[in-house]
Amino acid sequence: MKFQTIEEVKNSGFEGFVPIEHLRQDKSVIPSGAGVYLVVRATKTAPRFLSEGTGGYFKEKNPNVSIEELQANWVDDTCVLYIGKATSLRKRLKQYIKFGEGRSVGHWGGRYIWQLEDAEQLLLCWKETPNEDPKSVESAWISSFKSIYGVRPFANLQG
Question: Which residues of the chain have pLDDT under 50?
Fold first, then answer.
C-alpha cells in the first residue's frame, strides 16, 4: 500500500471510514476485537492548524504543540495521518474520541490530530487482527509508511 488514497486503504482490508463527528454519537459500528486503526483525511487541501486544539490535558500535560511543529510533522501526498493499535478497537477508539472532546483520558498518542481545524471530518477506519498481535501489525504498517515517506505518519510520535 502506498497510503495515498482511501481506496488503497480500503483495498488493504480496512473498514469503517466513519467521520469522527458521527462516531461521537454512535460508536456501535466499531468492532470490539483487537486490531489496528487509522485516522485518514479525505481531502488533499492544505491543512489548517489550530494553536489550541480540542485534546484533553492528561496528568496536567498540555497536549498542544506549536504550529511550527505541526507543520514540520505534516506529510504530503498521503491520506493516512495516524496508525494506532488496540486490544479492543471499540474501547480504544472511544478513549481517543473522548480525548478529542477535551477529556482527561490516557490516549496521548495521536494528539496532533486534535489541532487540525477539520478534525471532526477526519475518518476513522479499522482492521481486526484476530490472529495477529496488534502491536506487531501497527509496527509493520508504520515501517511500511516510513519506507515510502521517510518519516512516520503526521500524528505518530513513536514507532
Answer: none
Grid coordinates of 29: 459500528
8 Å CB contact between 65 and 51: no
Burial state string for 5-41 with b = 16 or more CB within 10 A and e = fewer than 16:
bbeebeeeebebebebeebeeebeebbeebbbbbbbb
Q: Nearest-CA neighbor of 7 among 108, 137, 123, 97? A: 123
State the burial class of residue 127 (Cβ atoms within 10 Å of its Cβ: 0-12, 13-18, 19+).
Answer: buried
Contact 155, 81 (CB under 8 A): yes
How many CB atoms are located within 10 Å of the residue 131 CB?
6
The one-letter code for the residue type at 79 is C
Q: 142-146, long-range: CB within 8 Å, 24+ apart, which pairs?
A: 142/83, 144/1, 144/3, 145/3, 145/78, 145/80, 145/83
What does the pLDDT read at residue 58?
82
**DSSP bridge pairs for 142:** none
